[in-house]
Amino acid sequence: MTFKENARLDTSQVRSGGGGGRRSGGGGGMAAGGGIGGIILLVLYLIFGGNLGGGGGGAGGGGAAGADSWNFNAAEVGAEGEGVSDDFSHCQTGADANENRDCLVVGTVNSVQAFWTSAWSEYQPAQTVIFSGTVQTGCGAANSQVGPFYCPLDEQVYIDVSFFDQLEQMGADGGSLSQMYVIGHEYGHHVQNLNGVLGRAQQDPQGPESGAVRIELQADCYAGVWVAHADGTRLGQEDQAILEPVTQKQIDSALTAAEAVGDDRIQEQMQGRVTPENWTHGSSEQRQKWFMTGYESGDPNACNTFTGDLG
Ligand SMILES: [Zn+2]
Predict the structure, then answer these.
(1) How far is the CA of 139 from the centre of ligand 1 (A)?
(2) Cα 254 vs. chain centroid, distance in angstroms?
(3) What spans are recorded as compositionally biased (Gly residues) (predicted)?
(4) How far is the CA of 149 from the centre of ligand 1 (A)?
(5) pLDDT digits (tens, 9 = 90+) for 203-228
(6) How far apart are CA 246 and CA 132, in angstroms?
(7) Is residue 197 included in any domain, yes or no?
C-alpha cells in the first residue's frame, strides 16, 4: 500500500535493537555472530518456520516454535554491516515510509495498531524492535536467520528489514504490501496473545491440522482484516488517514508473500519434498486463502481457524 505523502508517523511505536553485537556499551552484550545453533529460542512466532530438515543447521533447543534451518548466509542479512540507526527521526511522514524500509515498518506499525485500537477495546499497543543481525529478547537471543517474529513474553515484534530481500528471494514480488503483510501477521500474534489463544500453538506444534498451523493461519487472516480497514487508519482524530486505498495489484503482491512463506513451498525448496506432518504455518494455498478471508470479510470473527476445514 502507498502511504499518504503528508501523513504524520509516530516513531514511538518502534525502537532499534541489536546491531550485530556492536552494541557493547552497558555490558551484558551478546557475542556477535554465533550461529543459529547457539541461539536460545523459546517461543517465537515467526512469519515462516518449522523443521525444514536438510540444511543441517540444527535447531537450537528444538523448542516449540522450532528454530529454522533456513540457513542463508549471515553476511547477507547484515550481521555486521548496515546497522540500524538509534532513532527513527528520518521517519516523519508517509513520504518517508514510501522511500525507506525502516520508515515503512514505522508507518505500517502505526496503521496496524490504529486499526486494532479502534476495532477491539482490549487492544494494548506493542512496540516493534527493528534490529540488525542479532537481538536480545524476552524469549532469548535471536538473529536475523529466524525471520521476523513475535515474542509473547515481552510482547514485542522483532524484524530485521533485510528480511524483505530474503522474502523476495523466496518468491514475493517485493511490492509494499508483500512487506507490510509481514507486520500485519506478527501483530496478529499480538492480538492472539492478548485474547489468550496463542498458547494453542505450543500445545500442538506440528502437523497440517495442528494448533500451530491454526494460529498461523489466523494471524494471516488478521493481516487481511487490517488491510481491509487500512485506508481508514489514522494516528489521531485530527490526523488525516495514513494510507491510500489498497489496489488489486497490491493485494496480489501480498498474496505472493503469503505463497512464498507457505510450508509446502519452503519444504519443496529446502528438502525437495513436502512433509505435512512437519507443517507449522500451513500451505501456500491456505495462507493465501486465510489472508483473503480476512480481507474480503474485514471481520476478525471471520478468522475462526479453530473449527472446521482449513481449506
Ligand atoms: Zn506467525
Answers:
(1) 15
(2) 13
(3) 16-27
(4) 7
(5) 899 999 999 999 999 999 999 999 99
(6) 30
(7) yes
Q: How many residues does the chain have?
A: 311
> Is 206 inside any structural domain?
yes
Eight-class DSSP state of 93: B
Number of domains in the chain: 1
Distance 159 CA to ligand 1 centre (A): 12
Asked if residue 43 lies in contact with residue 63, where contact means CB atoms within 8 angstroms, the answer is yes
What spacing in Å lies between the alpha carbon of 301 and ligand 1's midpoint?
A: 19
Q: Which grid cell sits at 263?
A: 510450508
Considering the domain boundaries, does residue 5 fall inside one? no
Measured in Å, residue 212 CA sits from the centre of ligand 1 at: 9
Mean pLDDT on 141-164: 94
pLDDT at residue 51 greater than cutoff 90:
no
Is the pLDDT at 33 greater than 90? The verdict is no
Domain of 183 in residue numbering reads as: 11-26+40-302
- Distance of CA 218 from the midpoint of ligand 1 (Å): 9
Within a domain: 220 = yes
Output the CA 168–ligand 1 centroid distance in Å.
18
Determine the distance separating the centroid of ligand 1 and the alpha carbon of 217, expressed in angstroms.
8
Mean pLDDT of 19-46: 47
Q: How far is the CA of 219 from the centre of ligand 1 (A)?
A: 6
Q: How do residues 57-98 score in pLDDT, each as one tens digit?
A: 333 333 333 333 333 333 333 333 445 666 899 999 999 999
